[in-house]
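User: Could you write out the 3D structure of this protein bound to S-adenosylmethionine? I've included everything you need below.
Assistant: Certainly. Input first, then the structure.
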Amino acid sequence: MTSAPDPDVAVRRMAAESLAGDDPTGWFERLYAAADDGAAVVPWDRGAPHPLLIDWLGRPDDARGQPRPAGTAVVVGCGPGFDAELLAGHGWTTTAFDVSASAVAAARRRFPDTTVRYVAADLFDPPRAWRQAFDLVVEIMTVQSLPVRLHQRATEAVAGFVAPNGTLLVVATARTGSTEPAGPTEGPPWPLTREEVEAFAVGGLTPVSVEQHDGTPPFQHWRAEFRR
Ligand SMILES: C[S@@+](CC[C@H](N)C(=O)[O-])C[C@H]1O[C@@H](n2cnc3c(N)ncnc32)[C@H](O)[C@@H]1O
């Protein structure tokens, strides 16, 4: 009896080939292109916005005790686009970018009437105009999709998008003593330690909150907010 191929194995193979070739982001385009052809499944495509983003947007702004006033927003590593569409639906003027041109094209096809500006761009070489340009920056599981040696650079790049008085929201899988061994992890993903989450307080950002949300290990998450 033959069993269906495990989609996670194909994803890990693509990632391993990219990483071995010192191209830590190349596999994302290969994965999204293969998904377009029905030859792969994008494992993080939830078909919906992240629940921790939905919850956060529904809360009053702690500083003002009022609903959050919508302004400009950018979604980092937007992938399928559901988080960007949620923000746009809340009135945010939203830009969303991904290193994979196929991911961006798929998001545009999925949401043909969108007001979101979807852009193919690399976090490590973003348009200069995005520097401190957004009232809200949403980073969900992009930094953790990169090898640990790139986390600091990626974190600083994300923080650099936040405008004066702006907010950064980070959601990431948690790497804690209770869910992960203390030594180096073999990714992807490379979940974030508390120290790595706190490191988003860089270049003038200060932490507002760092929360750990329990789930069944290893599905514990950080949700952290920072302000410039
Ligand atoms: C684990 S997925 C998360 C996608 C989305 N944020 C979500 O929560 O569904 C990581 C995403 O980051 C994108 N990505 C990885 N490295 C990137 C980079 N250097 N610049 C822009 N996007 C990147 C990948 O293509 C992928 O869509």
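The two ends are 58 Å apart (CA to CA).
User: Perfect, thank you.
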